[in-house]
Amino acid sequence: MVEEEFGAVFVILVTIILVLEMVIGLIANLAVFIISRDNNKKHLTRGNSFNLNLHVVDSIICVTIAPLTLAYVVSTRFQTPLFCYVFEGSVSFTSTASSLTLFFICLDRYYAVMAPTEPHIISTRSRVFIFLIWIFATISFCSPFFGLKLEMFNSFNQANSSSVTCGEIIWRMEPHYIYEVIYVVTFLMTAFAMLMFYLSMSRVTRRRVAIKDALVKASLSFGVKMPPLRDTERKTLKLSSAIVLAFWIFWGPHLIVSIVGMIVWDSLALDIARILCLLFALMTTIIHPLLYAFMRQRFRQSFRRRWMHRETATVGCATYDGKIATIEVQAPGL
Asked: I need a surface site. Which of 44, 140, 261, 282 has the fewest CB within 10 A?
């Protein structure tokens, strides 16, 4: 058996990309999480719990999957069984939590578009569903260890850990790939649900936009000037399409490689492809803050205020119609 290792150029490039993803992704998600929580407390809004949970998942990815992948690439392809199972369990944990959170985000937006004035259980019971997400993700983390025989694990660890890769270890000790099946099923369920929700929302959005256009044309024909309408429906549709495409594009290759790894014996080429696809999937830790936060005007305004350290001071007050109105001035911090 030829003990093939990763090339030096490959290791350097992967290290640079992983460090950038860890640093940028962690800073972006923590910033979004802090500002979003402040906005939720200030405006007393619901429905953003799943978005906050997604940023928590992405932050966990930055401090778990990225360092583990870096350790796997920098050290050697031939690892101990314990490291391999922890690594595979962590990937299954975070990918399952991310997929289920995206599923509920899409479901919450679907009800918000289809019945904007009616409360729905996804929004009002968001904490319960978030708790279930983490429970299922924890089961996914433990799934690689299901049916594992400790005697075989110890003997394999002592005899073959210096010449066998993680793919070969799991292939020999856990041929059924329970954790991969859970990940594949969760991904396909989320992808299918996203597609159905997007198609339904697009039909409703186009119908509402057509009604608005007809009202504007009718008002112009009668010489009535209507105030300009904010086309939030089109923006919502574009954002929803970007979310669906990002999920498919960034996690799709990793899904394909995971399925191939279930039926093909491990090799250097497959290992390289698996790491590259995982690097591509980890880009979502940077994409998600852009899609779910920085594309919103309110968040950008809150971010600029916090970034510029503006302080608000009350300089006076006045009475009007029995009500007290305060005058506030924002001064940029030094």
From this structure: 44
